[in-house]
Amino acid sequence: QDLGAKRVILARELSIEEIRYIRERTNLELEVFIHGAACVCYSGSCYLSELMGGRSANRGACAQPCRFRYELYDDSDERIAAGNLLSNKDTYGMPYLKELAEMGIDVLKVEGRNRSAEYVAVTTRQYRKYLDALKLHGGFEVSNEDETEIMQAFNRGGKHSHYFEGKKGKDSISYLCAKNWGIPLGKILDVRGNMIKVKLFANIDMHDGVEV
């Protein structure tokens, strides 16, 4: 602030209490990351992409090596884990939207890097909708339909708000899959040869992408 900056973009791994602490101590505009991909490292301090492929994450050229599959070995060379060990779950900040707005956060950022136009349209529309509901009614409850639309557009690990809650660790990692998880469609009841019997939770149609 003393150097003449007008706005500060806060690191994605800050908790809601850390954000509040900063808000109470400055008149600068504050920008908070509300939805989308979160780095496994501390913001602005990742050298993995530069090391592996010569593309610096700190200069906007991240190749996302944290989304690769890795194997972890202990000191005796025994493999103790395998999977997407560095792939952080995406942030879902809707439960903290009211709190952030009431504390006076000036800008909310929805991640759009390498995402589809549909994803950007859906997520920004939904957050705009509930910000408007806050102004008109002082509160809101996200409908199941809207939540499903947000999750279906893209989610990596479901509704995850651990950073806002101050939690960092293994529960924040999307071990099984580093891409879009989509939404649960049903439960497999039986497997016979190359055929499966499924009880559907949601409707499916021709050309839908389905993963077992």
- Estimated radius of gyration: 20 Å
Helicity, as a percent range: 10-25%
Helix/sheet category: alpha/beta
Number of helices: 5
Tell me the fraction of residues in β-strands, as a range: 15-25%
Task: Describe the protein's architecture and organization.
With 212 residues, this protein is α/β, with parallel strands linked by helices. It is built from five helices and eight strands, in the order E-H-E-H-E-E-E-H-E-H-H-E-E. Strands 1, 2, 5 and 6 form a four-stranded mixed β-sheet that branches. A hairpin with a 2-residue loop joins strand 7 (186-192) and strand 8 (195-200). Helix 4 runs antiparallel to helix 5 (144-153). The model has no long low-confidence stretch (mean pLDDT 91).
List keywords for this structure.
212 residues, alpha/beta, four-stranded mixed sheet, two-stranded antiparallel ribbon, 5 helices, 8 strands, 18% strand
Secondary structure layout:
Blueprint: E1 7-9, H1 16-23, E2 29-36, H2 48-53, E3 70-73, E4 79-83, E5 91-92, H3 97-102, E6 107-110, H4 117-137, H5 144-153, E7 186-192, E8 195-200
Parallel strand pairs: 1-2, 2-6
Antiparallel strand pairs: 2-5, 3-4, 7-8
